[in-house]
Fold this sequence. Notes:
Chain B is α+β, with helices and mostly antiparallel strands.
Amino acid sequence: MVDQKELVKVAKETLARKDVKYIIGYKKGSYGFQTSAAFAYTPKDVEEFIFTPLCNKNLAKYPLKEEKLPLKRGEEEDKRKIGLIVKGCDSRAISQVIQENGMKREEVVLIGIPCPGVIDQKVIEKRFPNQSEITEVTEIDDDYVFTIDGKEQKIPKQELLAEVCKTCEYPNPVLYDIIIGEEVEVNPKAEYEGIKELEDAPLENRWEYWEEQFQRCIRCYACREACPLCYCSTCMADLLEPQWIRRSVNISENTAWNIMRAFHLAGRCISCGACENACPMDIPLMELNKKLGKEVKEMFDYAPGLDIEAKPLLGSFNPDDPEEFIK
Amino acid sequence: MESLVISKENFPELINTIIKSYRLFAPTEEKGFSGFNIIKDYLEMDLSYLNSRMPPKAILFNQTETLFLMEPGAKGSIKSKAISNEKSAIFAIRPCDAKGFRIIDPVFLGDVIDPLYKANRDNSVLIGLSCNQPDSSCFCTSFGDSPASGKYVDILFTDIEENYLVEVMTEKGKNFVNNFGRFFTPAPPKEIEAKNAKEKEAIKLIKRNLKVEGIEEKMDKMFNHPIWEEYAKKCIGCGTCTYLCPTCHCFDVVDESTLDKGARVRTWDACMFPEYTMHTSGHNPRPARMHRLRNRFYHKYSYFPKNSDVIACTGCGRCIRYCPVNIDIIELMNRVSEMEL
Amino acid sequence: MTENPYQPSLATIEKIKVEVTGERAIKTFKLVFQDKEIQEKFNFVPGQCVMISLLGKGESMFAISSSPTEKDYLEVSVMKHGKNTSALHETEEGDTVGVRGPYGNHFDVEGWKNKNIVFIGGGIGMAPLRSVVNYTINAQKRNQYGNLDIIYGARTSNDLCFKDEFTELQKRDDVNVHLSIDVVEEGWEHFVGFVPSNLLKVKPPTKDTIAITCGPPIMIKFVIQNLLELGFKDEQIFTTLEMRMKCGVGICGRCNIGNLYVCKDGPVFSNAQLKNLEGDM
């Protein structure tokens, strides 16, 4: 894991740059196992920065969420860069967005941190539902170690590790300006193992499975808002004319929403798991995204978010593209 | 108020008897979390739950509801919707969620009465179940309430090991209990004491506190304070906090039709979405997340007290627990409370 | 059964009058409830609003632009802009719409008796003011009010609403009409410039006068500034506000400014109220 002092030092140096307006990192959360995004404008703010196995949110969303309100008279736009702490997945998100022209490389300064995997928030909170005291977790060998009510807990990493991290192929940032910490060894486990069982199930069982999942959707759009690749200025789900998806919350509209979002992420999802993390109804959204990611990989030998110079998969044409699916 | 007991042995039969004459909503476990569903048998119920993921407000104020039916178009017509008068009981509702109904009653049953909510409210008996196990984000005690409060329900059950203590709180509750009189016996004092002991234990488990006192006056002076911007920075603008809140009552009204059939429908809406206030002209009175987030907290802690004399927050903790970015109403409001102005 | 406040009554579009053509088209719809009893019982005061819907499309709130002195119908004047207004613009005479209301507070036309009234409108913002104008110039009412000054402007002469009515009004000697357009046009004989400037030019006396204004937010802002400059007190200035609305009865939540709901506590506010109102507008 990264040394907090080094993190603060690097972040301070970055903040001191004339062309950086603020840095987004992680700080302790307000209770239990939470961590929070931290927006540092001053060196003092930076001192709160942490990087622990609980830093499981994807910060890449925030530069895209920055609101540009109309300028007041005489006011000039602040064109300085945003500093951002990125894990492997966050860096892929930024890289993919740049590839799609959603952001320019020079708009961000990336402080990369090789990531040994993060804890699944839902799993740890379910296991310790009464933990209101702010709890720090450290990783020691293959265990997570923390203290609850004065008692040290040592829990095997695999029990708490987020699913997406278990099969992560890119734990080391693929795009960065500065990197801190040691490179992490890549997990040899195949990325798409998690969906194998579902893939092998008969069609009607799969349909039944997803109906059950989508039934629960409350259309809060937390998945969309948490996803660094969902950055359209107006989501088609919010359009009134034409209205693609009705506001009624029922199996038909919910299915339309979830399938549409999955399709829009085909060849773009960088497997950070932010959507699934954010979903208050525990819909296994990453199973959909992984399946589409796998199809894309097999058909086009393409993985998103690795090269800012590459052409977005669905925005480019190659004479060798497979066409069996056109019947 | 009357205190009764029912043994756990007889309890399943009571539930199965209620089911015969009432539509019974009770917590069930699905995919690792609890929700209120209509049950057909005692065995479907899961009383080990902490609280349901979705508040039971969804039972009386459905997320999607038809207001009336229509034949759409320029020569269209309207067909009123028959309002159901089916008798329901909501079993094992937590005291905080029951308070949620008390809070939104003045909205739906004020100057203008919402007939759908009213029918559901009138036809439902609220049977509470005391929380013996509050969790890390619970803070009902901040509002002077208790995890074993019977104030907002018709009947309150408390698990006291071998038995349930059954406190009958209202006339509606009394009528209900009378229908099933054979299951209950008057509570001996030691059982009432047992409940009090459970309540004390549960209160001790609530570790977090929101300092409510004087907050409304503070907020009167903080509309332009930078704290709203600070929190809005990390808010991602989803609808989780509003949809899971037992007191958020805002809704959208839309027409949904095919060529020959249609309905005007209302669905929950969230003040965190920009479309919520967007004018046709493109002007938005709350253009930034800061405006929207500020409005949400003001609605709960300033506007609602001004209009209905109650803070529109029950301390159920759902918005804290399920916020994807750790926006914590206790943390924020305590900062407001402690603000030196 | 309790009455369903969300369910409109059906009304027939008796007449459609084209006020403005082109991109910012405006039409006035004359509506009569299909149920005679409902029509007879429908009472309102200028400033109040109604929810109008084309069934299957959706509902929007509009200010009633006719005067309650006309008992047999009500009118709304609608600019084509979004989904619902575009659908309304496609209707024909004889078509059916849903109408519910009236909603909200109103201009205090009773309390303003014996006072002079200055109307300051911009574009489609004249619609709610027209209701007051037609109320106060009504044969039975006119002698109850003092001077009536109408200051009205739009971007171009084509964008002026109720043109024929203003032509009639200009012929009367008990109403003063001051029209304006934003930019010079050939043949235009009246003021050229923005409405707030025209106000300064007209310079209505403040004594015993009520000023009511409606138009684009930016116009309202400068009109109020100029009214104050002319010596009007906050209590003499009234405006009517717009918000996105859905239920119309203070339940659905979205139209609040501070703790007030524009649908039920508004839409008419005095500047004295607005000044003390802290909220998003």
